[in-house]
Sequence to fold (98 residues):
Amino acid sequence: MLVEGVRVAAEERGSGLGSALLTWVEGWARAQGAGLVQLTSSSERTAARAFYERLGYVASHVGMKLDIVVGTAADVVHYDPETFDAPDDQVTSLFEGR
Fold:
């Protein structure tokens, strides 16, 4: 089970809401047959990371991301989002001259 984008309003922090939310998620994940709950958190959110560690979560990965903005090479390839197929000539043209 992957948990992403967890936010508790500043005025609710320390109220037990975050702990209750994650306890529910963990129980639901077990009921679904999941053997692992994994969550992501920005390395800049040190208080959030400390909170997750207090709940028993252990840092295990380093995440990577790429912001896709208009005008980048990734924006040039047009594909059908239903099939994720891009025409070979469009993909090849991205790498010509590299």
